[in-house]
Amino acid sequence: MSLTISAYPIGTPGVAWGPAEVAAWRARQTRHRSYADDVLTAIERLRSRFDVSEYATLDYAPERFPLYAVRSRDWRDELPTMLVTGGVHGYETSGVHGALQFLEHDAACYAGRVNLLVVPCVSPWAYERIHRWNPDAIDPNRSFREPSPAQESTALLRLLAPQRDRVLMHIDLHETTDSDESEFRPALAARDGVAHEPGEIPDGFYLVDDTGNPQPAFQQAIIEAVAKVTHIAPADAKNEIIGSPVVAHGVIQYPLKKLGLCAGITNARYTTTTEVYPDSPRATPAQCNDAQVAAVCAAIDFALAHADIS
């Protein structure tokens, strides 16, 4: 769908932001929900069934946010490792709650078959403010490289460094929302001092495969599973989704590592980024969470079925 966009209220058109503009932007951000209540409480309930560890603390004085990873209790080195990340963009709600729902209701099905490593909320400051960026106006999902400008990305890079060559499958849970076009893309253009080019928001679920390591059968298995839960985004008139050519039903490709995207953080054989559309009149919050869970389960099932195929 197309949206009408007004000029962004911070900065001078054509001039990249400096510290004053970043500070003005940060001052506009309002806390809307509680990471402690929504996420940490849910993680606490998982301690009886999983190994839960604090892998870092984000220091945004006066606020501090502990970051948690949830692992299989029966971790064995000979088992394939499956990685699930959510909340890299804190405003993408079903990424966080889909990961937690998977742990609560579906992860037990894989006990003794895989090593599960789940990071439900990579960006808690942004989760609370329903925003894409961290307090420094940096997008963590363009910052998974060394050295990283984002605390969130640095913390996850360090957590996963020992597993970088051991992960078989990594699925990163995201959403594409109407606010991408009404707020976040205009803000990005203003921050970088460039013109905002209006785009379209796709109506439905889609996936982002890796240009450098395409796995079309893997992506299609996920699409088929999610289609039972919610609708798949069609291509636009240019046969694109968010400006990228559609390579298969509901699938586009990005160079994950080159762009510093979370799904490229390991050397996993199977990688994907989900994109749920929560603003569709045809989807409910529960459906969005269910779609994320369906994607995770389909991704693990496919990777397990093909684990011995090189």
Automatic annotation (TrEMBL):
PROSITE patterns documented for this protein: PEPTIDASE_M14
SUPFAM superfamilies (alphabetical): Zn-dependent exopeptidases
Pfam name, any one: AstE_AspA_cat
Gene3D superfamilies: Zn peptidases
Reported cofactor(s): Zn(2+)
Domain of life according to the entry: Bacteria
Peptidase M14 domain mapped to chain residues: 31-310
CDD domains for this protein: M14_REP34-like
Annotated signal peptide: none
Record's keyword terms, sorted: Hydrolase, Metal-binding, Zinc
Family listed: Belongs to the peptidase M14 family.
Name of the protein this chain belongs to: M14 family metallocarboxypeptidase
Species whose genome carries this gene: Dyella ginsengisoli
